[in-house]
Amino acid sequence: MQTLWQDVRYAARMLLKNPGFTAVAVVALALGVGANTAIFSVVNAILLRPLAYKDPEQLVFINHNYVKTNLKASVSVPGYLHYRDNAKSFSEVAAISGWAVNLTGEGEPERLQGMAVTPSLFPTLGAAAAQGRTFTEEEGQVGSNRVVVLSHGLWERRFGSYPAIVGKTVSLNGEAYTVVGVMPPSFQFGRELGPAVELWSPIAFTPEQQNPNNLTNEFLQVLARLRPGVTPGQAQAELDTIAENLRRQYMPGMDASNWTLLLTPAGELVVGEIRPALLVLLGAVAFVLLIACANVANLMLARAASRQKEIAVRTALGASRLRVIRQLLTESVLLALVGGGLGLLIAMWGVDLLVRLNEDKIPRAHEIGLDTNVLFFTLGVSLLTGIIFGLAPAFQTSKIELQDTLKEGGRSGRSAARRGVRDALVVLEVTFAVVLLIGAGLLIRSFFRLQQVDPGFEPEGVLSMQMSLPAAKYGELPKRAQFTRDMLERVRALPGVLSAGTTTILPMSGNNSSGSFRIEGRQVPQGENSPHGDRWMVSADYFETMRIPLVRGRYFNAHDRAEGAQVAIIDETMARKYWPDEDPVGKRIVFEGTPQQPIWREVVGIVGHVKHRGLEGESRVQYYVPYDQRPTSPNLYLAVRGAGDPEALAASVRDAIRSVDPDMPVYRVMTMERLVADSLAQRRFAMFLFGVFAGLALVLAVVGLYGVMSYTVTQRTHEIGLRMALGAQARDILRMVVGQGMLLVAVGIVVGLGGAFALTRLMASLLYGVSATDPLVFAGIALLLGLTALLASYLPARRAMKVDPMVALRYE
């Protein structure tokens, strides 16, 4: 231990003796370690850390799965009840539904994100209230479910941490609810899947909802806990058997290729589609760290030349080669630990920035931070990098030809060997930089391709907002329709408003509504699913406001009301799919699940297809119904097209809505341009980080090349002077130095292109409209790196051209 402490003190003295070298090396390592720590913090929170519930590996979600249409759907009430009562693989089964509510009577009206849940949810999660209690089974019955459990955050924010909150009555959607409990601060259920949930209430199923014939009336998320010892595979096998029995009983002729049950571990569902992007980013920062290591190793090799006499003296005094290697490795590890400490500070800033920029788009973003695992990771990475970049210099420096070194005052005949190692490290840096730059180039080109996709409407100049009509006040459908008409009349009269319309679901809002339908005169073959599409209820001016183009027929108008002819508008994809060789205008469709007297709707128009879920991929067929004829949804989105900046209209539009209903909270106020941009958030997140890491790799690689070439010029000053004394021209020296540098770069580019050709295939799922081996990106990056490297080689070569032969011949 004493010897180790001596090595550490000596290493510290040597590093302080060379502050320039130490500063450059520490910064290079800090950038590499900091980038790795920041990304590992995200990976640790999202992919590695278990969900914050009791035995989270036992939690699974159950979905209805329409295999042919690749649709993973929610679960119906009879489905949930059947799985709860018949599946033996689960100890608890709970159902969840969205429950956004208007809180009134406690200051300003406010829209709150809640959940309607079965009382079994909290036992399923293994969670208990911090104050009061959770729900009883009796409170899951119709008429007994006017109770609510608050999140700790809502209790603090809205109720000022009122100590006697349990038993207090609050007004939600115009109805009185009794607070029965407050959850602890650590309970964040629902936030893993979307916006933070602030309150929970029991869901009560009506006899009509429980009818087994409503098996495909799907609106519930079902969460279950596996019994101890039961694996997800065993539970899935049991669900397959249950699905087969249900198909036989309620869906005669249908097979597993149409409808089945799908079990998904809760952790996998929470992670969603971000896993590939995080793994690719983790690989990218590993490359950045390796480039930083190669850079520092080159610096240490260059520094080793000036330490040859020192090492020779130590060897002459009896130090073994192993002892010298240990001393040199101690220096490199100490250097790495200092770089790791600075990298940790960079990571703290970087993680905070990442979360603030993408909090609503990254699952479990509230859990991202520096914990014990991250600190151990940083320590491990720092030690490993210290060993990696220290090994080659240590072995090279410790090879001493004692007599020659002492005679030559530090110049060793092993300079050629060291130069070979430095050259190899430069090639390695360029190789990794090529791979990262090509990956970044593919993501950037893919992102710009995606931005050029036509969303099917014009988002520029449109302000959107959301509201919900509480059942206590707008339970009667005509009242909902009347509120919508009155509100639109007030909003359209505002200065600067060109048009306004409402819809039950807004494109790219993250929500959706769909339904099956039948076409008049066509029978659905036995065992096949009925046609299914996205379905929205909209006001007459919605299409003009969003500027969704009319392909044929007409838009809705003021005459399309409940007492008028029942009509519908379809999109062009639905027209092509179901009426490929005829005009659908004038044809009739009916919704599935309508009462004995079906309400047939005439198709009066065809509009353009809207990219509803996002710019990439294809949405399902779409059809629209006038809201006045079917105001069944209490949730409304308002779209307002303005003559100028749409955000400037927000206050006046809000006032117009409250002039119709003072208790109506308006929320999610944002422009459609921002909504479209937010739909690309995860792609932007991956592209931005990959681009930053690739740029960092390019800088490190070019700096490494410049350092090697500068050192080479310094080492070869005597040779260059001799060449010039013998008649060599400046251009010959330029060609020699630049040629040596560009040869290293050319080898690195060729190897890097081969590596990128193999590795970029792993990121194919992150690309849109661009091949993983896009020749334009590959050629462009090779050219970019070549030109940058040319500049890095030219600067030392220019210095070599100015060498004075008389001075150089005396150079030692």
What does this structure look like?
The protein is α+β, with helices and mostly antiparallel strands. A hairpin with a 5-residue loop joins strand 4 (90-104) and strand 5. Mean pLDDT is 85; it is low at 409-413.
Strand line-up of the largest beta sheet: 4-5-10-7-9-8
Number of helices: 24
> What structural category arises from helix and sheet content?
alpha+beta
Task: Let me know the average pLDDT.
Answer: 85
What is the count of β-strands? 23
- Computed over alpha carbons, the radius of gyration is 34 Å
Strand fraction equals 15-25%
Helix content: 40-55%
Largest sheet: 6 strands, mixed, barrel
- CA distance, first residue to last residue: 41 Å
What form results from the Cα inertia axes? elongated
Low-confidence stretches: 409-413
Which terms summarize this structure?
812 residues, alpha+beta, six-stranded mixed β-barrel, 24 helices
Please outline what is shown here.
This protein has 24 helices and 23 strands. The chain has a six-stranded mixed beta barrel. It has a six-stranded mixed barrel with strand order 15-16-21-18-20-19. It is elongated.
Secondary-structure blueprint:
Elements lengths: L1 H16 L1 H30 L10 E8 L4 E3 L1 E2 H10 L3 E15 L5 E8 L3 H5 L5 E2 L14 E4 L1 H8 L9 E4 L2 E8 L16 E4 L15 E9 L5 H19 L9 E6 H6 L3 H31 L2 H9 L4 H38 L13 H27 L3 H7 L6 H37 L10 E7 L2 H4 L2 H16 L4 E7 L10 E6 L12 E7 L3 H5 L3 E4 L13 E5 H7 L9 E4 L9 E7 L14 E5 L8 E8 L7 H11 L6 E5 H8 L1 H35 L1 H9 L4 H30 L15 H27 L3 H4 L4
Parallel strand pairs: 5-10, 7-9, 16-21, 18-20
Antiparallel strand pairs: 1-2, 1-11, 1-12, 3-11, 4-5, 4-8, 4-11, 6-9, 7-10, 8-9, 13-22, 13-23, 14-22, 15-16, 15-19, 17-20, 18-21, 19-20
Helix pairs in contact: 1-10, 2-8, 2-10, 2-11, 8-11, 8-13, 8-20, 10-11, 13-20, 13-22, 13-23, 15-18, 20-23, 22-23
